[in-house]
Amino acid sequence: MYSFETGQKRIVRGIILSNSCDISKENARVIAPKLVFAPIVKLSKIEARLKDRGLAEDAVKGRIDAIERQSVTNIFYLPAGEPLEEDYVALFDDLHSMPIASWENSQKLFTLSMAGFYLFVFKLSVHFCRLHENVDR
Predict the structure, then answer these.
(1) What digits encode the pLDDT tens for the residues 47-73?
(2) CB-based contact 97:36 (threshold 8 Å)
(3) What is the rounded CA–CA span in Å between residue 29 and residue 21?
(4) 129: enclosing H helix or E strand
């Protein structure tokens, strides 16, 4: 991941948003596609960040509970389980794009279940389309 703030690159865990056909090595392309992903962050870091900002303990707990219920539209909650050693979240407002060649030596950690996939797609749709708001911007 490239950080615009520091100008540095670092290796992070992430969840891929790109189409699996676009990232398949078997699918030859004249112009290589870019890989789009959201870094995944430990939920405990989000909780610490909320506390550092001075939120009251009950407000922090409420926000974490909302994240775990998948009620926060720009955050996708990933509960702990093999291979994730603790709860993580993907931030839909922190997407990155990188050349597909940069990703080819990466290790796949997990695949979402079908229920997880549909929830992921639904939350992406809500986050980016906001179909329910009826606000003309």
Answers:
(1) 999 999 999 999 999 999 999 999 998
(2) yes
(3) 10
(4) helix 114-129
